[in-house]
Fold this protein.
Amino acid sequence: MKILVPVKRVPDPATTIRVLPDGSGIATDNVKWVINPFDEIAIEEALRIKEKQGSGEIVLITIGQTAWQEQLRTGLAMGADRAILVKNDAPLDSLAIARILAKIAGDEKPELILLGKQAIDDDSNQVAQMLAEMLGWPQATFASKVEIADSKVTVVREVDGGLETIAFSLPAVISSDLRLNEPRYASLPGIMKARKKELKEIPAESLGIDLAPKLKIKKLEAPPKRQAGKKVGSVQELVQVLHTEAKVI
């Protein structure tokens, strides 16, 4: 089975994010970049599927600048077989990303596409759904368990009311949720092998895809500073404050 795993480069969750004074973006000085945690879970799940089946190929893909090779190499060190970097310097919205992935999927012809349910920087949660629609493939979002038997897939999804189990045939698109697995660390031998694995670069403009953004972010603002708490002397006073000041009741 060939599994395509799209990954995104995002700021480390432990990094302090600062918004630029003009609100045009975030300050990238001294920011550590990592694989989007949900995409890392998708890589781990692809590795487990390959190990369980005893064979297969895992292909990573990311869309961005040359520096994004670092995250692809990390995924290769975890155990992926090869990687593709679609080079593009301009920011892209979810629709453009999905179009590029659909084009690459048409060329690579994977049986399964595994990706994170959302990126932790923009939290869009759109690419997997758009991609499945473009390919005309069945999809399962927010997956917490994936089982594959022959060409049939059973996925347990996390939904508002609890868990939902669905089944469908390959090829398909699955987006991973937090509880799907615990990603492994890259071993030293894996890091050494990653240096020799194939990492192909493709200029985005060579794909012949309309990449003009349909969504524009007008301005970013840092959240307001958290205010100090307030002590009250009685339940009656608490109810009064919630009603008159907080206006939540």
